[in-house]
Amino acid sequence: MAKESNGATKTFLLRVDEETMAALEQWAADEFRSVNGQLQWIIAEALKKSGRKKK
Known about the structure:
By secondary structure, the chain is mainly alpha-helical. Helices cover about 50% and strands about 0% of the residues.
């Protein structure tokens, strides 16, 4: 998802309140994804929807 031009991924810190994290964990589990995978999917979908990312 957050890939540099050389294909490497970037790491970043994200602070999330407990209620949001619990909801995210449940959503990820419901879709058989890790929390990281779920966040990558959410971000990619939002970028596509806004026209900021193609594909």
